[in-house]
Amino acid sequence: MANIVIIDDESGVREILSDTLAFYGHRVTQASGGEEGLEAVRRERPDLVFLDLRMPGMDGFRVLEALRKEEATQGIPVIVLTALNDRAQMVEGFRRGANDYITKPFNRDELLARVDAQLRVQRLERVIRESEARYRALFERSADPMVLLDETGLVVQANDAAVSLVGSGPQRLLGMRLIEVLNPDDRDEFEAAVLGAFEGSQIPIFETRLVLIEGRPLPVDVDLHPIEVEGRRHLLLHLRDIRWRRSAHVWSEMILRYIGDAVFITEGRGIILLASRSAAELTGYPRDELMGLDIARLHPPEAVRQWQEILPSLVEGEPRVYEGLLRQRDGRMICVEWAIALFFVDGENYLIGVARDLTERKQLEEQLRQAQKMQAVGQLAGGIAHDFNNLLQVVLGYCELLLVNLPQGERMRGQVEEIRKAGDKAASLTRQLLAFSRRQVLQPEVLDLNEVVLNMEQALRRLLGERIDLVTILRPGLERVKADPVQIEQVILNLTVNARDAMPEGGRLTVETEDVALDEAYAREHPSVRPGPHVMLAVADTGAGMDAEALSHLFEPFFTTKEQGRGTGLGLATVYGIVTQSGGSISVESEPGEGSTFRVYLPRFEEEVQAVPSEAALFRLPRGSETILLVDDEDAVRTLVCQMLQLCGYTVLEASGGEEALQVSERYEGPIHLMVTDVMMPEMNGREVAER
């Protein structure tokens, strides 16, 4: 979808253009004159502008000139609107900066093709600009010193790292021959390598010596890369400080002392001279890439400030320990404990930094806090539910006594029944609170979760509706668990309702079972879980998903992301209570826009399977004598439903489609009290049958 501004003094043209573009998903802003249109473009910063050239007041030519003069709008493509015989206008429009034109009256297909072409060109230009900016930034911000030489050997460009390495301002490098800052003994070899690289020879990385501004030699590795800049041949030089090679025995001794953690040794300005293997593993950089890298690259901005505040206070032999963030190669931040110390070798100061990953410790601390919070909330909820149940028992008991003594038709009887209904709802809430607090009485049986899911499948499909597909992935020969079958059904039902509400526009719900083995690592993350064989029940949806803030409160009672009036906030709290009371655990994975997956893990149990009562056995079937019109194009379904209704005493009229249903209703002389119809049928759907 593109953002488009239309500037035309003719309202009819504007409306036709606007309706056409809006129909194909574009966002359109209209302007009836030049000045109004110019303000709209400045305000909206659109992807494309349609501009009529002939307008009273400020005409299209002046608008074009204004757009092309302003930096913020000069890159926006403009399609001018012109008459068929107005070729001079069209040429002048191109001269003033138009990108394309379309003649009035316009053809819809031509209009859309020109719009698509301009938007495609704009996207390509944006990609090119971003690519150029990205490569320029890579050169300028690279931690590796880089220098660009022309064919005469002059330095035409040097990044900050190269300037810092040489130890002077850029004026010392730019415009001079690089050999002038080399050790005289190394210049012939360097010139031969540069000449060979320009002639196309493959030059291996070689060592040379820079002469720093104070006259001290600095050994570096040089890597030559021929490149073309603005049609001319250049050489890109990568320089790497290799002083660490000259004092390897010192570094080796320091690394061996701290071998268990990530160790970095830097020179005084923060350039990494040596890094341990564990440092490479912690940061994600290969060891050879860490060498020569500014250690500030491993710190986000706030951590760089923290590092810079600590450095001046360092005293040799007195390490400083603090917690901070470390940025890994892929951009992720991890919490580490730093121990840094200052030391001197041959009169020069160096830093040694030892970093210890605190990620696992922080996760365990957060899990402990969350478990303690849930325990405290559960105790509070259980206590409230217990006391409230006692009060409800009195209220509901007296309601029953009153109803026994009040005859049918008595005015007060209806009021007492309303009180009882409200009490029953309150009792339902307290039962959910008791489930969350793990104080309900369970009746565990040895179960096959596959059988539980299959027995509930039809009920779940009805609950989800026709816009949500239900997919079951059940592992054959699934191991058994010991749990209360009614409560496990409640878990599946609550998770299904939660998933349904997350997919108001439809989607897919997947219920999966699997045998799994939970290891020690998972058990450490979930203190209530014992490692070993478990059976997994997963419920995954393709809904809206949740952010980290919602996930942190997900199983707390009365927490809900739904609008007011839709849910009590106890559904997932009940699931959490049932699962944990059953000896299991529950985890959830979710991202905004990516759906959610809940995984319930129950310990495996080795016994014979107990049959779970089917859904039909849980309800008492109603009876009646009325006439029902049954409409369904599936013969097997229609026959089954017909038999069930007839078993309950109803008279059933059958029809295999909409037309037959209309004919049956016309022929039948008695009253038809109810119609039961399938929604999706060929030729005439259920809604159409009902309306006719």
From TrEMBL:
Residues 3-119, 627-692 form the Response regulatory domain. Residues 114-141 form a coiled coil. The modification 4-aspartylphosphate is found at D52, D678. It comes from the Bacteria. Signal peptide: none annotated. Residues 131-201, 255-318 form the PAS domain. Pfam families: HATPase_c (PF02518), HisKA (PF00512), PAS (PF00989), PAS_9 (PF13426), Response_reg (PF00072). CDD domains: HisKA, PAS. One of its GO terms (biological process) is regulation of DNA-templated transcription. Residues 383-606 form the Histidine kinase domain. SMART domains: HATPase_c, HisKA, PAS, REC. Its EC number is 2.7.13.3. This is histidine kinase.
